[in-house]
Amino acid sequence: MELSSPFLPTELPWPEIAITIVGLLLTFVLLKSTVLGEDVEAPLDYAVPLPEQCKPGWSGRILDNPSSKIPGSSAIQCYNPATGQLLGQVNPATPDGIDRAVARAAEAQKEWATTTFRQRRKVLRTMLKFILDNQEDIATVACLDSGKTKVDAMLGEILVTLEKLEWTIQHGEKALRPERRPTNFLMMYKHNEVRWEPLGVLAACVSWNYPFHNALSPIISTLFTGSAILVKFSEQTAFSANYFTSIARNALSACGHSPNLESLTSHSSAPGLSLTSSAPPLRKHSSQSALSWAAKTQR
């Protein structure tokens, strides 16, 4: 005996149900993409003017005795160590100029510290896209300034910088999450936790051998932690300093943030310093830092 009811369908409309489920899934994916944040992190396009010396057809004067020092001048003479071609001159920052750069960075960092990881990832994705799109130009600048080959520049400058960006984008937020720490029996009512917070304005002194990677690496890490950074390039690669740091500054501007990322020689107010150096410059930097902190302590 079969039971029937006017309220129960004798046959379910499976095709219509399947279409409805698929439609709901597509709607959810679209909503997630446009509203819940995936598009929020989409990279933006921006431009950085390429130095004239890196454009086709340029030919610089060959120096008889290449040197970064100019007799009777404080300017830095830039040249290609592989060919001796003169690249131009760069005026080093003055103490007053450094103070102003630190003040601008400190002011910009207050707002930057409040940004979300999604906003910071957007900046890094924007930088990553620019480097991928302009890797030939970046390698050319690095080759002119440091005398390396194009293969060395692609492997030692471009590839490792892209990997640093990709790792930070994928794992940076997880690495900066609060971490629990164990306690003991007597303090079992306590909750121990380590929180990673922005430090303010940091400094990085980078060496000449891989100027692009050595500069961008601390910039990437520092920006993602919510801090600001000022970079001091080696006088041997002063020519590329403005172009390479403009990649970070212009990415910040394109994403609606302050571009106050400038060059730095040394400053006593920086709470942290990243130094990539060989032994002799390291000893010199250490002695100068000791003098600066000693004077600050006496005051």
Task: Outline the low-pLDDT stretches.
Answer: 263-270, 293-299
Biggest beta sheet summary? 3 strands, parallel
Strand order of the largest sheet: 6-5-7
**What's the alpha carbon Rg, rounded to whole Å?**
26 Å
Distance separating the two termini: 101 Å
- Compressed to H and E, one letter per element, the order equals HEEHHHHEEEHEHEH
What would the principal axes of the Cα set say about the shape? Answer: globular
Overall mean pLDDT stands at: 83
Please identify the structural class as seen in this structure.
mainly alpha
Write the layout of secondary structure elements.
Blueprint: H1 14-34, E1 76-79, E2 86-90, H2 95-112, H3 117-133, H4 135-146, H5 150-175, E3 179-181, E4 192-194, E5 201-205, H6 211-224, E6 228-232, H7 238-254, E7 273-275, H8 279-298
Parallel strand pairs: 5-6, 5-7
Antiparallel strand pairs: 1-2, 3-4
3D architecture notes:
- With 299 residues, the protein is mainly α.
- 48% of the residues lie in helices and 9% in strands.
- The chain contains 8 helices and 7 strands.
- Helix 6 links the parallel strand 5 and strand 6.
